[in-house]
Amino acid sequence: MKVAIVGGNGNIGFHVAEHLLKLGHEVFCLNRRLSGNIPDGAQHILCDRNDEQAFIKTVRSWRFDMAIDMICYNAQHAECSVQAFQDVKHLVVCSSVATYGRKFATLPVTESCPANPQTDRNLAYAVGKHEADLIFLQAYQDSGFPVTFLKPSISYGPKMGLLRQIGMDAKFINRIETGRPIIVAGDGIALHQFMYVDDVGRVFALLLGKTETIGESFNLAQFQPISWHDYHQTVMEVLGYEVEQIGVPADVLNRLNSARNIQITDLFWENCYFSTAKLQSVLPEFHPQYSLKDGIKIVIESLKSQNRVQHCRKNDWEDLLINAIRRIGIGTLINEAESKNKHIISKLFGVLKK
After folding, report:
1. Are 120 and 86 in contact (CB under 8 A)?
2. Domain of 148?
3. pLDDT (tens digit, 0 to 9) for every residue of the chain, 354 residues total?
4. Would the CA dihedral through 202, 206, 208, 211 be positive or negative?
5. Which end of the chain is less packed: N or C, by CB atoms within 10 Å?
């Protein structure tokens, strides 16, 4: 089959293209620049979806059999794709679990959970994805437009780098390797799902062409959730070092965000995991090939080979906070964080530096 991928050189898209090639498809990656990396055997098509008329004209001229849209972020993108891919047999769209928002009645979250993107901290992204989904769904209801939605959760890989509970800073790898404790939000037991990008890409490739899924949405996540504490322990196991994980209340960390660039949100400090039963029912042949340890090892090796693991200087904010906890206790720090003083951040770090 002749398959188009919009965004075939991204964190997930590259792996989608690889697996489509393995399945014997003729693969075309539609990107706005030819400089992006795509798998050997795939073909590049210069095509910018933000130039709508040119995008529609180019896509139609190639007469694709099927397509995957990895970079549809808003209603305008969706309207453009509906026009461009009106003649394909099947279009799989990369939606997001962010469309569910962050207020769940029950866990794990199933596909029947109502969309509530306004409660997501990453508001613009979540709302944009939801509005795009609505455009596609309306096209399906009006004319049978052959769309299927995949909603990935946390998909990690070499291009994106390595997560930790309080951000994306690879310096924490250096912290661990130099024997320095790391901070976690709360007690670190919040449950999440981490799927390696190659497994994510394989799901997209396997689902394409399963026309019985048209009009349906499917959560895409590692089958079993794991706590952040155990996730960090796995990172340590790969690195060959073990350090203490020191819990700090999430609201205290949240108050330090703007001043210390701590990337902590309720997405990571609360339980947030999704049912994959529906996906497994239509793809019984799929089983994740990468354990968490396998995936983390690949990412760390990639980061190191590209010199992307930054040095973590001594007495940075994390050292200061940990030292203060050990010296004056977490209770004092909580009281400081709960102060109504508008200069709470500078006041708190004044305490840390004493």
Report:
1. no
2. 2-161+194-224+271-291
3. 999 999 998 899 999 999 999 999 999 999 988 767 899 999 999 999 999 999 999 999 999 999 999 999 999 999 999 999 999 999 999 999 999 998 888 999 999 999 999 876 678 999 999 999 999 999 999 999 999 999 999 999 999 999 999 888 889 999 999 999 999 998 999 999 999 999 999 999 999 999 999 999 999 999 999 999 999 999 999 999 999 999 988 877 776 654 454 555 566 788 999 999 999 999 999 999 999 999 999 999 999 999 999 998 888 888 988 888 888 787 776 676 666 444 444 555 554 544
4. negative
5. C
Give the count of domains, the chain.
1
What does the alpha-carbon distance between residue 298 and residue 157 come to, in Å, rounded to a whole number?
Answer: 8
CATH number at residue 275: 3.40.50.720
Domain-embedded: residue 229: no
Burial of residue 79, with CB atoms counted within 10 A of its CB: 0-12 exposed, 13-18 middle, 19 or more buried: middle
Nearest Cα to 130, choosing from 83, 67, 77? 77
Say what the pTM is: 0.92
Q: Which long-range contacts (CB under 8 A, 24 or more apart) does 307-315 make?
A: 308/161, 308/170, 309/170, 309/171, 309/173, 309/174, 310/169, 310/170, 310/171, 310/174, 311/171, 311/174, 312/171, 312/172, 312/174, 312/175, 312/178, 312/180
Q: Which helix (H) or strand (E) holds 92?
A: strand 90-94
Would residue 71 count as lying in a domain?
A: yes
Which single residue is written with the structure tokens 């693969």?
Answer: 27
Mark residue 69 as left, alpha or beta (left: phi above 0; alpha: psi -120 to 50; beta: remaining): beta
Question: Does residue 167 belong to any structural domain of this protein?
Answer: no
Is 239 inside any structural domain?
A: no
The closest alpha carbon to 63, from 2, 20, 9, 118, belongs to 2
